[in-house]
Design a protein that fits this description.
- This protein is mainly alpha-helical and about 100 residues long.
- The protein has a single domain, classed as Helix Hairpins, CATH 1.10.287.3510.
- It is about 85% helix and about 0% strand.
- The longest helix is centred in the last third of the chain and has 31 residues.
- The protein is elongated and about 55 Å long.
- The chain starts with a helix and ends with a helix.
Length: about 100
């Protein structure tokens, strides 16, 4: 059963990495980063089942979720300000504005 969850986690991580590397929209890139963090959370919870007395995996997953929530709030605020200033969320167009 553990191989199923680890395979699912690897699949989520791969899709998240593919999204981050190939997409141009900042919002979609943030969604890819969230997939990567969720894959890490899944691994921590699955491997935390082997340490049922201390619940370290679940604790780390909770901390990652809290950090991811804060990251999303700050990143969306930055994206909103960039969009408000440049009127685009496309990374290629932002690069041309900075030159």
């Amino acid at each position: 059963m553990i191989t199923l969850y680890v395979s699912l986690s690897a699949f989520l991580f791969s899709i998240g990495t593919l999204i981050v590397l190939t997409k141009k929209n900042i919002i979609v890139i943030l969604m890819g980063i969230e997939l990567i963090l969720n894959a890490a959370n899944l691994n921590l919870v699955v491997f935390g089942q082997f340490d049922a007395e201390h619940l370290r995996g679940h604790t780390f997953a909770l901390f990652i979720t809290i950090v991811a929530t804060a990251e999303v709030a700050v990143a969306l605020a930055i994206v909103w300000l960039v969009y408000k200033y440049f009127k685009t969320a496309n990374i290629d167009e932002l690069k041309t504005f900075s030159e």
